[in-house]
Design goal:
There is one protein chain. The chain is of the alpha/beta class. The protein is globular, with a radius of gyration of 18 Å. Helix 1 crosses helix 8 and helix 3 runs parallel beside helix 4. It is built from 8 helices and 7 strands; from the N terminus they run E-H-E-H-E-H-E-H-E-H-E-H-H-H-E. Helix 1 links the parallel strand 1 and strand 2.
């Protein structure tokens, strides 16, 4: 049986890298997208060597629609039949109040988290519909369920991911395609360092006293959804550390 193909955006670190490792371990061929070419090349060598699968690199920024179009159109014929699209590329910058934040940083978040996801969906899903098979897995967030202090714009982008996932599921209801929205709570990756504008100490302090999820934990859930029987559509999954209850309520042990 021919190996299936998964396309993962933002695959150079965090959840995206975790997904690449998990799907490779399960025998899938990978199309990996990110801006960091060197990391993608390292992953390609490592995963092909470890699991005997094939990796195709697509280095571009999902905010750059022209590059996205050119890259996907240039895929060799044997790579075009994508079975799963994991829309993972996303970020949050800053913890500013809505009336004090940076318009430029907001543009980056909106262009990545919403427009980038939409562009990849628009470019990949028509082929899935034509082939009569496919699965779109969007990485949303618990932040999309309710706003929290200092995160209104990011929360709005992840609320959009939920709406776009639900809307796409409706639009595809008469097809065999499936749509899943994965909504993680606290996950310790470089994502949080970016949130604090590179302040590693602040990012580390955010997780003190609690065991957060990892990119690999999220990857396990993503693969679980992708590997469910064809007649089962796991529409939405909210997952959090055991000591987290909502986007704003968690229990952190104090240092002894």
């Amino acid at each position: 049986m021919e190996a299936k193909i998964v396309l993962i955006t933002g695959a150079s670190s965090g959840i995206g890298e975790g997904c690449a490792r998990k799907f490779a371990k399960e025998g899938w061929n990978l199309i990996l997208n990110a801006r960091t070419v060197s990391k993608l090349e390292e992953l390609k060598v490592e995963l092909e060597g470890a699991y005997g699968i094939r990796v195709y690199i697509l280095p571009f920024d999902v905010r750059d629609r022209k590059s996205a179009v050119v890259s996907l159109e240039s895929l060799p014929e044997e790579w075009k039949a994508i079975d799963v699209l994991v829309n993972n590329a996303g970020l949050v910058i800053g913890v500013d109040k809505e009336f004090e934040g940076s318009l430029d940083e907001w543009d980056i978040m909106i262009d990545t988290n919403i427009r980038g996801l939409l562009a990849m969906t628009r470019l990949v899903v028509p082929g899935m519909v034509e082939r009569g098979r496919g699965h779109i897995i969007n990485i949303g967030s618990i932040a999309g369920d309710a706003a929290y202090p200092g995160g209104s714009v990011y929360c709005a982008t992840k609320a959009a991911v939920k709406a776009l996932s639900d809307g796409l599921r409706i639009d595809l209801v008469d097809t065999p395609l499936r749509v899943t929205n994965i909504k993680p709570g606290m996950v310790e990756t470089n994502f949080t360092v970016v949130r604090y504008r590179g302040d590693k100490e602040a990012a580390d302090n955010f997780y003190k006293g609690i065991r957060p999820l990892t990119g690999d934990d999220i990857a396990e859930t993503v693969y679980f959804a992708a590997s469910a029987p064809a007649h089962i559509q796991i529409a939405e999954v909210l997952l959090m550390p055991t000591n987290q209850a909502t986007g704003t309520i968690s229990y952190k042990k104090k240092p002894e």
